[in-house]
Amino acid sequence: MTRLSVNVDHVATLRQARGTRYPEPVATALIAEQAGATGITVHLRGDRRHIQERDVTEIRQAIQGKLNLEMATTDEMIAIALETRPDQVTLVPERPEEVTTEGGLDLLTAGDRALTTADRLAAAGIEMSVFIDPEKSQVGWLAERGPTAIRGFEINTDRYARATTPADRELELAAIRQAAAQGEAAGLLVFAGHALTTENVGPIAAVAPIEELNIGHFLIGRAVEVGIATAVDEMLRAMRAGTD
After folding, report:
1. Partner residues linked to 91 by β-bridges
2. Does residue 211 have an active-site annotation?
3. For the chain, which ranges sit under pLDDT 50?
């Protein structure tokens, strides 16, 4: 069964909109765990638009499962990661003006910096992943180096989620399957996420090499309607249905 890591960023988005102390992402994280999520993901951005440092610390201390910290490759973020000690760091590209992450990290230009960061984190016992598009060149860059301090990668599923025709969706799904197989053959851990919903998650969950899905916006939006426990349960059911 593919694992589910719940991204609680947008709980903090709601809180920051009014500058209050509620709702608290840590509370949502704990309920998500109780509902069956095996991990929690947070993205600490440079502009602090949602998640704050204290959220990372509180979630780290409170949850039983895996904490995945998404961040840009900056000295500030590396220092925070070394202090808070998440189980995993996932490097993502970041632009201040973007609404959400717009694409994968380009390892052909940013790979050396990623490797340096991975070495620093590995020395502190923190595993590292990179968020990349499902392209042969990106996975190939990792495969050429094998599972070094960069233990795995997260496949950006945005193009798949945005496909508007069955043919286009199948084309994107084929690229995801190929990237996952390429990574598995190189001994890398394979994750996936971005823009996944209960409607489109099934085929992604069915890609055998993918161990974990990171899902946030849809779950938090659904939680406004039915609560986070029900939203997580619905997602897990949709994931299981995809693998049956």
Report:
1. 71, 130
2. no
3. none
